């Protein structure tokens, strides 16, 4: 499989340099790391919001650095959590003295490395909090799993936490709204093809032309179920029903929806899903307050999509629609 | 107890051997991780252990404890993912058992401390289809062989390595409860755990080096 | 090949409905057409800026409708120019009496249909002008071709014309700046894979795993040359040299660059190209004023990219950085 | 000269036959367009001619001229791309040659007007590897067969259709100068032009219907 790369080991490094070359005024890369921060970090008087995780999910994470969203983002190797020392460097660079909130997706690697980093930062007297996003309803949260994964709903958490911090709120408050968002968001995804990592150079899993994977994560993992290919409407119905079942919302509830592309999906197809999604949620008596469509949290070149629904109240709506100015999202 | 300088040499040689082996097994481990994970375990470990071997290669100053710690610290900062803190963090924290050098006793202590730390950090019990499944029988066998059966260390470690292999095989027919494989639910059954496999490979190399 | 669609004949219709569901306040679809216009079209006192062409290039064209850019966009079938009657409907809906500028990409189908539409609109006393974008340097403009194609550089033309019209400029002036932009922009593209049209369901051309197509257009056409796979840097060098050769700029010239993804390319790879692009232009003594990176003009799910360079002066810079508020671009 | 109602029936039957044929050839035409274009010629024409056949199917009112014009107008609004204005616009504008009904003479006039309009709109000379290459020999042969050789119209049209086929074959070894295929430069050599091919298919169907 062909890729526009020079060397599979240099992908993350060169990607970050190319990103910096595109946004030289907004971004700064910490020396000798794969950490990107706001050019003006730390922003004095503001709680720092940081995130990070494996690479391959672009525009996540660094694409959401900027006013009203993230102060820093650490990029691990493709699909591999960043290391604790780099996470610590990031936390230090984003702390203005008001403390730092880490938005972590629920993967054991991410959680363990962020925890270690948090301990290291605490030793430097930085107040660090962690919120763990686990919006993926495909994976049951039970004793028999390591919990639900964090996927596309993470973007909403970045947005809400970033907006609250931009208001000048304290760490406690920022953490509270982030957790409120986490408690109210659910996602489920589908893959039509596997992604190809630069390192392996071949599809992570084989998926015949008449089958799809339901309940995939964002790391090229196989999903929870392999089924026969279905129409866009059938797929949307299936994903949306699972998501709504999990959220169990009252009629009339206002919601924010996201149809997220996995990287290799034409935008036209995402809109075809959105068309059906809006029919389904309206059939459930829900009120769409806003609908996002696009590539927010990808899996390299995977063809597929995820559907996210979040219940929103006045507070969340205000934070979600507050100004943001980042490479990947301008509100 | 061998001379200290010889211990350091052995540690450097072991690090080198492990790094070489993991480079050789990189594709195989990633293949295993493709089936039930995210296709990076091979490159994570190959990258990390190569850096670790390089980090200690020219270090003529450090004590055995310091060398082992350095390996752990390097893994923490080079591996990432779940296996980074598990391998790196546990090696780092268990390294203090070598304060007085590497002996049969301190090796048992290291093995126990390492296993405890992995279980503590990863919160995985036996049978969750993780590296813990290879590690536990290996550590139990090693400890018993030394402390109860009073076997020579090399023989004990050979038995421990064989036990690890049994653990690797045991991961195949069971359902994952931890790590990325757990997301697959029942579909994880029938696949071999990458982390258990790499644990066994590493032990094989340590055995080789110890044997020389 | 799998796609997230229901019916290959309904792709454009359902995509437009899904888009409308995502931007109900910004967009309006003309009844019984595949034409999308600003919700508030025609904007009184403003020259209308319209575009259009085959579908499959999303976010082009309708994604650029909004304040500071397009007033209307007509979507043909996938890779097929819209029909003259729908183009005429669009022109009528976007004329506030100040006239309408049509931004046309240089394809015979597009040009002929826009010409017919222009004649129809003229019969209704609407002043219509056409500018034809032909930025693709892969195709020589000679007696033996139908001229250079219009590709990703079209986005800059939309931006410049839209900004000028938003200032309240007259049709002559808007046409002038659009042509100025056209005269100063050049693009060249590469494909790693063919795209798959919903209709055909299979790759338009076969491309082995060790070969790439240079000089592709945006319709899944094969390129001008098939060569062995190269590294990202080599590809970037090749495309950029061709583009710069065509533009023949003086040292110190300020430029705007665009690394455009063809739809199936991970964003990380686009940044890897951008990194090298900036090195190359700087080696040529050019000054990057701004660098855009992203999926602006796609070919469905094709893996590949194009590189665009535009020479900019004070006037163009002002127009390019003027406010714009559209689904796909916010400035 | 046949009765007017019979002429309208023949036009409707021809439209139907052409629509059916293009549906059958849809994949083949698109295949040709994949090689040197953008893989849509088959669906463009199938969609357009089906709509055109439907548009005239129940029209019992219109004159032959009006029916042909309606076919052209429908093609303009349903085909899109390059072939939409070329086929549709040219049929629409040539339709006025049928003002006095369809005769051998008016058919020659139609053919000439149609060719002129295609060349006018598309600006393609002979040998540019377009539909013009099938159309020109067909129209020239038709005109000469009727006007010089005074052959019966059906024989003349059969010869014209054979000439179109020759034109289709002629497009294979030459380099495109117009249309999307021109973007390929020398790489267009060796491929058959889709628009020339569809022109020939349409003539074959018109011949069938006229023969009945
Ligand atoms: N909670 C855990 N406890 C013990 N071992 C674990 C745990 N989670 C994962 N592992 C081990 O880590 C291995 C995967 O490592 P690796 O692929 O490098 O990291 P990641 O899963 O982050 O991609 C698994 O095969 C498993 O043996
Ligand atoms: N300038 C032209 N003059 C005459 N025929 C043309 C011209 N351009 C294209 N064609 C014809 O149109 C055909 C392609 O039609 P089609 O695929 O439907 O449209 P598009 O090229 O817009 O996709 C070509 O095979 C060629 O015969
Ligand atoms: Mg990983
Ligand atoms: Mg892994
Ligand atoms: Mg076309
Ligand atoms: Mg075509």
What structural keywords apply?
heterotetramer; A: 331 residues; alpha/beta; Rossmann fold; Hypothetical Protein Tm841, Chain: A,domain 3; 2 domains; six-stranded mixed beta sheet; 22% strand; globular; B: 212 residues; mainly alpha; Serine Threonine Protein Phosphatase 5, Tetratricopeptide repeat; 70% helix; binds adenosine-5'-diphosphate; binds magnesium ion
- Coarse morphology of chain B: globular
**Helix run count of chain B:** 8
CATH topology of chain B: the name is: Serine Threonine Protein Phosphatase 5, Tetratricopeptide repeat
Helix/sheet category of chain A: alpha/beta
Largest beta sheet: strand ordering of chain A: 1-2-4-3-5-6
The amount of helix of chain B comes to: over 70%
Strand content of chain A: 15-25%
What would you say this structure looks like, in words?
The complex is a heterotetramer, with 2 copies of chain A (331 residues) and 2 copies of chain B (212 residues). Chain A is α/β, with parallel strands linked by helices and 331 residues long. Chain A is 32% helix and 22% strand. Chain A has 8 helices and 12 strands. Chain A has helices at 11-22, 84-94, 108-123, 154-166, 171-183, 232-247, 267-283, 314-320, and strands at residues 27-29, 35-38, 48-55, 72-78, 100-105, 128-133, 185-191, 211-214, 225-228, 254-261, 287-294, 304-311. The longest helix of chain A has 17 residues, at 267-283. Chain A is globular and about 55 Å long. The model of chain A has no long low-confidence stretch (mean pLDDT 95). Chain B has 212 residues and is mostly helical. Chain B has a single domain (4-211), classed as Serine Threonine Protein Phosphatase 5, Tetratricopeptide repeat (Alpha Horseshoe), CATH 1.25.40. Chain B starts with a helix and ends with a helix. Chain A binds chain B through residues 9, 54, 76-86, 107-109, 112-113, 116, 138-140, 143-146, 149, 197, 199-200, 204-205, 217, 219-222, 224, and chain B through 30, 34-40, 43-44, 47, 76-86, 89, 121-122, 175, 177-180, 182-185, 187. The structure holds adenosine-5'-diphosphate (ADP) (2 copies) and magnesium ion (4 copies). One magnesium ion binds next to loops of chain D.
